[in-house]
Backbone:
């Protein structure tokens, strides 16, 4: 099993959660440090709004999902891994302590993006 930190459309109740919902073995709210969060509006090749996490001095809040490793390929495709996002290891602080997880860091331009100083994306 693999932990994946999600902070946008893959969170519970959001647009893409259905892609993983039936496979989630555990879900822990938490945050990562050392990142900024941006709201990326529709347009510029984006069919709908979603967030982008980039390195910076801050925190990003989301959920750590425990998923079968086979879902990483599906998530890589969804996130356009290597082009729009890069899958990296992060340290997530949860109510059960720290855990290591995969997360997708945004690689694209931030022109027109809205900085979210609280590190929470509501969509």
Residues:
């Amino acid at each position: 099993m693999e932990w994946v930190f999600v902070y946008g459309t893959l969170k519970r109740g959001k647009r893409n959660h259905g892609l993983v919902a039936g496979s989630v073995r555990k879900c822990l709210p938490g945050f990562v440090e050392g990142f900024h969060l941006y709201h990326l509006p529709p347009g510029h090749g984006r069919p709908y709004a979603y967030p982008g996490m980039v390195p910076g001095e801050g925190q990003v809040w989301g959920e750590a999902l425990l998923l079968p490793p086979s879902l990483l390929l599906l998530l890589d495709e969804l996130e356009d891994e290597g082009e729009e996002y890069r899958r990296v290891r992060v340290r997530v602080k949860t109510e059960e302590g720290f855990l290591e997880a995969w997360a997708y860091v945004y690689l694209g331009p931030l022109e027109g993006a809205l900085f979210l100083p609280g590190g929470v994306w509501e969509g």
Remarks:
- The chain is about 5% helix and 50% strand.
- Residues 71-78 form the longest helix (8 residues).
- The two ends are 28 Å apart (CA to CA).
- The chain has one domain: 2-115.
